[in-house]
Design brief:
single chain; 230 residues; Rossmann fold; globular
Length: 230
């Protein structure tokens, strides 16, 4: 395996690294959480990455989003992130989709081609649609719950949606998924009570980034579990 991934190979093993090179992961939403997830997936050697977002980089993103720089303001987030992935791993294959995932855009995606899906979108409607699409395709998915208005990055946990507490978004998701007979969903959520309550969520550099990295860790562990016990 090339030198770039030698340290990863030392931890996961050669077969696991080769497997990651052939895996295709889709990350829906590449803002504060999803951007850091993509960063870690690329650095871990995931060979094929789909990034889905219609947003552009704006000044208010500078405090927490890995792709947000003064030099990237006004650019499409997926374009900036695509170039960043290539700068990390020139051999990666990247599919950039300039759209928001919604029920009306679902048909643009063939979920059966993904090995894993990351839900880092903001709306309940989109989250539920992603979960349903993955269930129909038999593809594993991990969802990010609320990271806004929080200050404690150590309060994040990985759990099934039906074992979550405190998080308002998780509460809504539990109710809506139960209606649709969804029995389980792996999520990353925080047990921290909101520090503030605002219509537009407040955020800081070290909270959504941690959520994104935890998600990436779960994806890598799940994709390589057949090769080793982590």
């Amino acid at each position: 395996m090339e030198e770039q991934f030698s340290r990863t190979e030392g931890l996961l093993g050669e077969e696991a690294v080769k497997h990651l090179h052939n895996c295709r992961v889709a990350v829906f939403g590449v803002g504060g959480v999803g951007g850091f997830t993509v960063e870690a997936l690329a650095r871990s050697g995931v060979g094929i990455i789909d990034i889905i977002d219609k947003d552009t980089v704006c000044e208010s993103n500078l405090n927490r989003q890995i792709i947000a720089l003064h030099s990237t303001i006004g650019q499409d987030k997926v374009d900036v992130l695509k170039q960043r992935i290539f700068d990390i791993n020139p051999n990666a294959i990247v599919y950039a989709h300039k759209c928001f995932f919604l029920p009306e855009t679902r048909n643009q995606f063939d979920f059966s081609q993904y090995d894993y899906v990351v839900d880092a979108v903001d709306t309940v409607t989109a989250k539920i649609e992603l979960v349903m699409a993955c269930k129909e395709a038999g593809v594993p998915i991990i969802s990010s719950m609320g990271a806004g208005n929080k200050l404690n990055p150590t309060a994040f946990e990985v759990a099934d949606i039906y074992k979550t507490s405190v998080c308002p978004l998780a509460r809504v998701m539990r109710r809506e998924l139960k209606k649709r007979d969804i029995k389980k969903l792996k999520v990353v959520y925080s047990k921290e009570e909101p520090v503030v309550r605002r219509e537009i969520p407040a955020s800081i550099a070290f909270v959504p980034s941690v959520a994104g990295l935890i998600i990436a860790g779960e994806v890598i562990k799940d994709l390589t579990s057949q090769f080793m016990q982590l």
